[in-house]
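Worked example

This section walks through a single chain of length 137. The input is the sequence exactly as stored; nothing has been trimmed or padded.
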Amino acid sequence: MFMVGVVFSLIGLVCLFFSFCLFRGAFRKRNGWKSAPGIVVGYVESIRDGQRHYRSQVQFTAKGGNPVVITSNIGSNTHLNRIGDQVKVLYDLNNPAQGVIKSFSTLYMPGIVLAFIAVCFSGVGGHILYSLDSSKM
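Given that input, the structure is written out below as tokens.
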């Protein structure tokens, strides 16, 4: 049972590390990338587990006047934005095609979810190790 506790704790620590990396990347995007207005021009539709998911496609004009279309990383079973809605886009001047929609869910939600998983795994692992240690007394 000791090894189970150690494995759960280690998985939690690894998830916490990657969560930190995701947050660091989000802050770098927010503070270091250029912001531009964009407009929702369409959706990418996919089917997962028998349900339709939609990801917004946004067009914006990068520095230099080049139009760029990006697809959101975040999908939903409903249209999060309507075609024609204006959104803010963050993009790297060297690679505008890797731009992201500037929203809380796009920037921070992956890190938050991974941090929650890290806390759960670390909590279970810590509880197992604590239970083993206190049962010896």
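What to look for: The chain has one domain: 2-130.
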